[in-house]
Amino acid sequence: MTTLATRADLFGPGPVRTHQELARYIRGHVDRAANGRIRDLEVEYSDDRILLRGRSRTYHAKQVAQQAVLDLTDGHPLLANQIVVS
Questions:
Q1: To the nearest 5 percent, what fractions of the chain are helix, strand and coil?
Q2: Residue 75 domain-assigned?
Q3: Which residues, listed in sequence order, are joined to residue 50 by a DSSP beta bridge?
Q4: What is the pTM for the complete model shown?
Q5: CA neighbor of 79 nearest in space, from 37, 65, 36
Q6: What does the alpha-carbon distance between residue 31 and residue 82 come to, in Å, rounded to a whole number?
Q7: pLDDT tens figures, 19-73
C-alpha cells in the first residue's frame, strides 16, 4: 500500500528530496487537481522556480493547475505557468 506524501514530507525537515522527485510529485498533484485536462504536462523544479508546461483547452484548467502548485508549495517564490491554451 502506498500513501501520498504530504507537503511537510516533501518540503519540510527530513530526508532531502531531489529536484526530480519534487517535480514528479508536483506533476502528479497537478494532474489529479486538473483531472487530466493538461496535455503533455511537464514540471521543472529548482531552488528558485517551478515551471509548468503543457497544453490545455481552457484557461480555467490552466488556472486550476497553477492553483494546485501554489496550494502544495505554500506560494513558491517564482511559479512560471507556460501552459498554452489552445
A1: 40, 25, 35
A2: yes
A3: 45, 79
A4: 0.79
A5: 65
A6: 15
A7: 999 999 999 999 999 999 999 999 999 888 999 999 999 999 999 999 999 988 8
Residue for grid cell 517535480: 23
Residue 34's nearest CA partner among 67, 64, 59 is: 64
* Residue closest to 56 by CA, chosen among 31, 19, 20: 31
List the CATH number of the domain containing 62.
3.30.300.20
| Chain-centre distance for alpha carbon 60 | 16
Q: Is residue 9 part of a domain?
A: no
From residue 33, give the alpha-carbon distance in Å to each of 2, 16, 17: 19, 25, 22
